[in-house]
């Protein structure tokens, strides 16, 4: 697939902003990749619509094609939608805290119950009790007991003839008496979603009041993923998703579908049958897998990095000479935005504590950086090189052009003056700042 995409994309090798045609052409391939990865169709549609809006007009990085640029935008949007940070299981509640596992039969609930219990025991040092509420399959409770013996985790003793709700009640009482931190409630599934299953889950939920309700789903779940996730979420209310069988050849499109319709995070992924085959969910890795175009993404990232390095090197050279005009400031601000905002950067530089404090006082965040860049962009090239030209009438024009107050323009100019002074001093000294900027 990457080859096919590459072929089409190579035809379009020019720089500039992405046009409607570039985006449409690349998105056709992206759509196919998403469908091959089992992403549900309505999600494919809403996702590509979102990407289209974001991509058109976006600048193409030097040395990549427009199509490659679109793939990178798609990837970033995927990561964003999948949830940018790995979200752990929330253990922030008084003990004993219940974690309820729900899902269809064969999705991997019982296996994942033991995996999570093992992880909470060994990594989080919690005392965990596992209980099977699966009274439907005769061997189900036995299966969990065996897993408990294998992993060394306690299971609730099996008592015949109890309902799931009764077992849940007994598990919570046993946990309270036994000083357990966490109770894992493994429930029974069905081959398909039905009212009886939902009613049973809702009943268990209201009696055990679990802190987490994790929907366990096979990563090969295709178009059903939306219905599955919506039903469980609407009827029972899930707090997260566990995606199993990621060791197979499933591309994991279900992760995107389920996340998109419920907004609930994928917290963990199962990568094998063994009790330690459980991993944190990494949105970027799954995005690569769903898209199947990881090579293109890293290519574009590399190209962007090279350009940043070129720019930094140029700027460092200027600073060594003590030159720092508003054009440089704008460039610097853009870099800072990329690297986590002003305070992040200033924190990396020694000897700039005072300015840093002032900036914190001025509450410089990403939005502020964008505004400052806009102010500079409203100036003429001449003004950027010679800020001294900026008298009252020009300031008014610039403020109007960038939608800010004249006071904001003044603030920016003051900041520039301070930074320019600092650059001059340091540039004449050991060139420390220049070196630091060069290394950025
Ligand atoms: P349940 O009906 O939802 O409780 O499903 P089980 O936990 O009993 O799992 C059904 C089957 O799937 C078992 O044979 C498990 O070993 C297997 N299984 C569960 N999770 C994974 C996984 O992440 N990878 C692989 N390869 N197999 C898994
Ligand atoms: Mg089971």
From TrEMBL:
It is a peripheral membrane protein. Keywords: Cytoplasm, GTP-binding, Hydrolase, Nucleotide-binding, Ribonucleoprotein, RNA-binding, Signal recognition particle. Gene3D superfamilies: P-loop containing nucleotide triphosphate hydrolases (3.40.50.300), Signal recognition particle SRP54, nucleotide-binding domain (1.20.120.140), Signal recognition particle, SRP54 subunit, M-domain (1.10.260.30). It catalyses: GTP + H2O = GDP + phosphate + H(+). Its EC number is 3.6.5.4. GTP binds at residues 103-110, 186-190, 244-247. This is Signal recognition particle protein. Composed of three domains: the N-terminal N domain, which is responsible for interactions with the ribosome, the central G domain, which binds GTP, and the C-terminal M domain, which binds the RNA and the signal sequence of the RNC. The gene is ffh. Involved in targeting and insertion of nascent membrane proteins into the cytoplasmic membrane. Binds to the hydrophobic signal sequence of the ribosome-nascent chain (RNC) as it emerges from the ribosomes. The SRP-RNC complex is then targeted to the cytoplasmic membrane where it interacts with the SRP receptor FtsY. Interaction with FtsY leads to the transfer of the RNC complex to the Sec translocase for insertion into the membrane, the hydrolysis of GTP by both Ffh and FtsY, and the dissociation of the SRP-FtsY complex into the individual components. Its main location: membrane. NCBIfam families: ffh (TIGR00959). Residues 265-278 form the SRP54-type proteins GTP-binding domain. It is an enzyme of class 3 (hydrolase). It comes from Stappia taiwanensis. One of its GO terms (biological process) is SRP-dependent cotranslational protein targeting to membrane. One of its GO terms (molecular function) is GTP binding. Coiled coil: none annotated. Belongs to the GTP-binding SRP family. SRP54 subfamily. The keyword GTP-binding applies. InterPro entries: AAA+_ATPase, P-loop_NTPase, Signal_recog_part_SRP54_M_sf, Signal_recog_particl_SRP54_hlx, Signal_recog_particle_SRP54_M, SRP, SRP54, SRP54_GTPase_dom. Part of the signal recognition particle protein translocation system, which is composed of SRP and FtsY. SRP is a ribonucleoprotein composed of Ffh and a 4.5S RNA molecule. GO terms for cellular component: plasma membrane; signal recognition particle. It is found in: Cell inner membrane; Cytoplasm.
């Amino acid at each position: 697939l990457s080859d096919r995409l590459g072929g089409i994309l190579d035809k379009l090798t020019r720089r500039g902003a992405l046009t409607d045609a570039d985006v449409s052409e690349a998105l056709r391939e992206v759509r196919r990749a998403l469908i091959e990865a089992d992403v549900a169709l309505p999600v494919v549609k809403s996702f590509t619509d979102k990407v289209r809006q974001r991509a058109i007009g976006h600048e193409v990085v030097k040395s990549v094609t427009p199509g490659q640029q679109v793939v990178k935008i798609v990837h970033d949007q995927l990561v964003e939608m999948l949830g940018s940070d790995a979200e752990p299981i929330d253990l922030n509640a008084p003990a004993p805290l219940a974690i309820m596992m729900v899902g269809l039969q064969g999705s991997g609930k019982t296996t994942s119950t033991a995996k999570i219990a093992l992880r909470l025991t060994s990594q989080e040092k919690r005392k965990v009790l596992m209980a099977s509420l699966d009274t439907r399959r005769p061997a189900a409770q036995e299966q969990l007991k065996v897993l408990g013996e294998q992993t060394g985790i306690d299971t609730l003793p099996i008592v015949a003839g109890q309902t799931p709700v009764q077992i849940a009640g007994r598990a919570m009482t046993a946990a309270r008496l036994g000083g357990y931190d966490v109770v894992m409630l493994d429930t029974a599934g069905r081959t398909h979603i039905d009212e009886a299953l939902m009613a049973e889950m809702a009943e268990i939920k209201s009696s055990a009041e679990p802190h987490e309700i994790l929907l366990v789903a096979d990563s090969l779940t295709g178009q059903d993923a939306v219905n599955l996730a919506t039903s469980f979420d609407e009827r029972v209310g899930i707090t997260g998703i566990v995606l199993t069988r990621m060791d197979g050849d499933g591309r994991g499109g279900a992760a995107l579908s389920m996340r998109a319709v419920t907004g609930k995070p994928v917290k963990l992924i199962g990568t094998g049958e063994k009790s330690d085959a459980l991993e944190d969910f990494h949105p970027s890795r799954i995005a690569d897998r769903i898209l199947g175009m990881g090579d293109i993404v890293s290519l574009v990232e590399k190209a962007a990095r090279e350009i940043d390095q070129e720019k930094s090197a140029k700027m460092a050279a200027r600073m060594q000479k003590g030159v720092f005009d508003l054009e440089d400031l704008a460039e610097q601000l853009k870099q800072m935005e990329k690297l986590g905002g002003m305070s992040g950067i200033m924190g990396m530089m020694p000897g700039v504590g005072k300015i840093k404090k002032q900036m914190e006082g001025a509450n410089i965040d990403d939005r502020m950086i964008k505004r400052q860049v806009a102010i500079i962009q409203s100036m003429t090239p001449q003004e950027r090189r010679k800020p001294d030209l900026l008298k009252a009438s020009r300031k008014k024009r610039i403020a109007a052009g960038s939608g800010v107050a004249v006071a904001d323009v003044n603030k920016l100019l003051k900041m520039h003056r301070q930074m320019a002074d600092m650059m001059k001093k340091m540039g004449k000294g050991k060139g420390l700042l220049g070196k630091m900027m060069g290394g950025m």
